[in-house]
Design a protein that fits this description.
Elements lengths: L3 H23 L33 E7 L7 E7 L37 H4 L15 E3 L7 E3 L13 E7 L12 H14 L2 E6 L10 H25 L40 H6 E11 L1 H15 L9 E7 L10 H5 L8 H11 L29 E6 L5 H13 L6 E4 L10 H4 L2 H18 L9
Parallel strand pairs: 5-6, 5-7, 7-8, 8-9, 9-10
Antiparallel strand pairs: 1-2, 2-6, 3-4
Helix pairs in contact: 1-8, 3-11, 4-6
């Protein structure tokens, strides 16, 4: 059974959530028209937010980017410090007993392919003598004076290390949560280090300000944006650019103190004169190894994006979705499962409150528990399941959504898709992504299990444990 602390927090959490959902339902007349607020919101005032930090102070640098001028859609990029240490060709990393592994990393658990130690990063050639600290790079602001950007700004050269890219969609029942919340920030940092990937956390629009299909469209927009970034980076290299500067928050070439106007003709710029190439992704991202990860309702978005990536494969080149991880997906259906009956009043997100969330998300004229956004096994949903990417499903023993997620995984396995299920005993919904609050002993184990499975599909051939 869950701890007493988890039980008490669950009661408090459900009380607040029910109050907030009811308030938003009462305010529905202002939002009956799903197009009344196309810009939308991506977070709530009551959400605790973790500020971005581009300086690798804890092993992961982060940067926030607003990528769509017409909506509130934004992303947070998590770049692990291991990206600064290029791997040795045709060799596997060796464990060094003289170094203490970083707490929480895989190196302290089962394997020896986790993030590099801090000593290994000293004296690297990525812009400063001590790694990434002390960089004072010019940032070009729109409609404002340029200021200092104190953060990592990479150089496009042969010393770069290419890492897989992981798109992450947070949970919150469509109406809450954010990509920059304290809980989501901690989870993404953990995954970035354990999986050794660049994580892009998506701040999709929330309901009821932006109803279905807004959140799904935002997920697809980010996949399109990632493909555009990869193609723009290739164009930049073909134009003879030695480095990429700018991005939404500025940046510059490694070791370069300012961005000169005389260099502007060598950069792909937008109408404001700012570089549209994100340097972290251009230098370190490998979009041909893309993984989708979603928690709760975020898993619904991940599954939708995976389906669209399969249907329009060539439209997203060079991005290739090689796998997806669905963490306690927010699936429902008109015919209740055994867990939906037995655990209807389960911890944190009980079934009654989740029904309120679905009413806030789906347009009134489209509300149905067998809506394609709600039921993954509804008849006529495309593409055929046999074309879906390998899918890892994470479920919690005490979650009423468990059985339907398992059923979806079983249907994938019937058509020979690699679709294992990881079930965690005594765990509750969002146990791994709310670890900052729950302090669940299963959270770290779950993150490690995800890393072990994901590495099968993102590791380069012959270098399964070293990219």
């Amino acid at each position: 059974m869950p701890s007493v602390a988890v039980k008490l927090y669950s009661v408090f959490f459900k009380f607040l959530l029910k109050h907030r959902l009811q308030n938003r339902i009462q305010a529905q007349p202002d939002h009956n028209n799903s197009n009344s607020d196309p810009f939308g919101v991506t977070s709530r005032p009551e959400e605790s937010v973790a500020n971005s930090n581009p300086s690798f102070t804890d092993g992961v640098a982060t940067k926030d980017i607003h990528i769509d001028p017409f909506t509130s859609l934004s992303i947070r990029i998590f770049l692990p410090q291991s990206a600064l240490s290029p791997p040795e060709p045709h060799s596997k990393p060796k464990s060094n007993p003289k170094h203490d592994p970083e707490p929480g990393s895989v190196t302290s658990r089962r394997y020896s392919y986790g993030p590099p130690h801090k000593e290994e990063l000293r004296g690297n050639n990525f812009g400063a003598s001590n790694g990434v600290e002390g960089l004072n790079l010019m940032s070009a602001g729109v409609g404002a004076d340029a200021g200092l950007y104190r953060g990592y700004a990479p150089a496009l050269d042969n010393r770069r290390r290419k890492l897989p890219v992981m798109l992450q969609f947070h949970g919150g029942g469509w109406v809450s949560g954010s990509n920059d919340s304290v809980a989501n920030d901690l989870f993404c940092r953990r995954i970035a280090k354990l999986c050794d990937v660049i994580v892009i956390a998506v701040g999709y629009r929330l309901a009821p300000e932006s109803r279905y299909p807004a959140a799904f469209e935002d997920g697809l927009k980010v996949l399109n944006w990632l493909a555009k970034q990869a193609n723009l980076a290739e164009c930049s290299k073909s134009m003879g650019i030695g480095r990429v500067g700018g991005g939404s928050h500025g940046g510059g070439g490694g070791g370069v103190s300012e961005f000169n106007k005389s260099d502007a003709h060598r950069h792909i710029v937008d109408s404001f004169g700012a570089s549209v190439v994100e340097p972290w992704l251009a230098t370190h991202g490998d979009p041909t190894r893309c993984v989708l990860v979603g928690a709760s309702c975020g898993a619904n978005i991940a599954d939708y994006v995976a389906r669209k990536a399969v249907e329009g494969r060539k439209l997203f080149e060079p991005v290739k979705v090689v796998a997806q991880v669905l963490m306690y997906p927010f699936f429902v259906g008109s015919v209740p499962t055994r867990s939906e009956i037995k655990l209807a009043n389960s911890y944190f997100y009980d079934k009654a409150m989740c029904m309120l969330a679905w009413k806030l998300f789906l347009p009134e004229e489209e509300f149905s528990l067998d809506h394609p956004a709600a039921n993954p096994l509804v008849v006529g949903r495309s593409p055929p399941l046999k074309f879906m990417p390998p899918t890892l499903t994470v479920v919690a023993e005490l979650d009423w959504m468990r059985d339907r997620a398992i059923a979806y995984s079983e249907e994938l396995r019937k058509v020979n898709v690699d679709a294992p299920v990881l079930e965690y005993k005594d765990a509750v919904h969002e146990f791994a992504t709310l670890d900052v609050l729950l302090k669940s002993p299963q959270a770290q184990v779950c993150a490690e299990d995800i890393a072990i499975w994901v590495k099968k599909y993102i590791s380069l051939r012959g270098h399964e444990f070293s990219y």
